[in-house]
User: What shape does this take?
Amino acid sequence: MTGAHPAVDRDLQRASRRLGKPAGRFAVLAIALAAPAAVLIALGDQWVRGVGIALAALAGAPAVVALGLALSSLVAWWRAHGRSFA
Assistant: This one.
């Protein structure tokens, strides 16, 4: 082994932090849309349930963006610490 702590690539680590912050914000937005949607779907009837389904569909877009940014951040962090993927 070369050492206990491998060299850290500062640029990749900075990129990881840059991707992580908006990922959290998009996740909060998705949760803010999904929580009332779940309540409307569970407790509503007829058209109220339809509004809940529409809100849940709208929550899907920021959730997918948050997931993509979080995974990109994780990959950048992993590579910044010199770890191999295979």
Remarks:
- The CA atoms of residues 44 and 52 lie 8 Å apart.
- The mean pLDDT is 90.
- Residues 10-43 form the longest helix (34 residues).
- The helical segments are 10-43, 47-80.
